[in-house]
Amino acid sequence: AVQLVESGGGLGQPGGSLRLSCAASGFTFSSRWMYWVRQAPGKGLEWVSSISDKSQYTYYADSVKGRFTISRDNANNTVYLQMNSLKTEDTALYYCATDRYGNSRGQGTQVTVSS
Prior knowledge:
The chain is 0% helix and 48% strand. By secondary structure, the protein is an all-beta fold. The strands form two sheets. Strands 2-10-9-4-5-6 form a six-stranded mixed sheet, with no helix packed on it. A four-stranded antiparallel sheet has the order 1-3-8-7, with no helix packed on it. The chain is globular, with a radius of gyration of 13 Å. The model has no long low-confidence stretch (mean pLDDT 97).
């Protein structure tokens, strides 16, 4: 069964940085695109970023473009999200997923941006 375990969330300051990790198992990680999605309080799931199976392609929501960087390590079945220049509106529960709608996602890691 697909298992995704996110980590690395916490409290960040506006303008600061956090790095999220997601350990994947139960499927052929190196053959799958991977995604980060998030859910802010009281809102629906929002796609944040995508990365192709061999890291050839990366895509970002306009709201995070230029601030967040997605990457992956296929040798260790892990996908990352480097979050820089944090804003209060980045506060959300962040999930890694095997689809951009978040239908197959982990339990999430909380990111709170506040001074």
